[in-house]
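Before a computer can learn anything about folding, someone has to put a protein's shape into writing. The three-dimensional part falls to structure tokens, numbers that each stand for a local backbone shape. The protein below has been through that process, and both of its lines are reproduced in full.
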Amino acid sequence: MIYWKIYPKSTLGHWVALSVKRVASGIKGFDELIQGGFPRNTVNLISGPAGSVKSLFALQYFYTSSKDEDTPGLFLALEENRSNIERAMKDFNMDLKTKEEEGKLFLFDLGEIRTKKNAQNKRLLMGFSELQDFLDDFLSVKEAKRLVIDSISALGLYYRTSEDLREEMFAFTRFLREKAMTSLLVSESIEGQGLTRYGIEQFLADSFIVLGLEDIKGTLRRFITVRKMRFTEHNTAKHLLLIGKDGIEVSSERII
């Protein structure tokens, strides 16, 4: 998808045309907030507390690659096991088994893989360098342009200092851009303790999307906010998230 945007160049006052290739999110109502989709070859971060449906958002983005892209999608699960992911996708009418058989989707339970390696007296925890090695090996034999990692919060446990974590995360996001992948990284947050688990993830990504829950007249309602997105004139309002039989969608209704 190519989205054309005409805007005034602020420094010179001239009109220029900007062409940005976009990748559809698969989330109804979301792409309208971000000029048609994620900018191609970018690293995008989504964060939220438990219950904010960030994993479902990531699964819909992943599954959309089987319908709208010429190359397969790749999902790396670091915490949730494969059976739970399969069940969640089935509940929302996403046929993972068929798409895998067609070679359109690849899903790896890295927690299970690391557990098996640990049985051979190898370290269970995984860092960004190990994840990069895994991706390098995979991409040497298969092609994928849409990537989901759920969640990178698990990788932070590998590092002893925030400086080490930031350095390794920076190198990893650079690697993803060099591989020309449009990536969605999932990060957890703890309510009342910041927008991301470690407080640095949002500074290294090209975009930052926040999911959350808010008490509205005694009922918890889910919401989404695009706080940051490079190369994009995005909507920054807080919008309601709705869950239907085919997954989540973004309502035009705003939370004030």
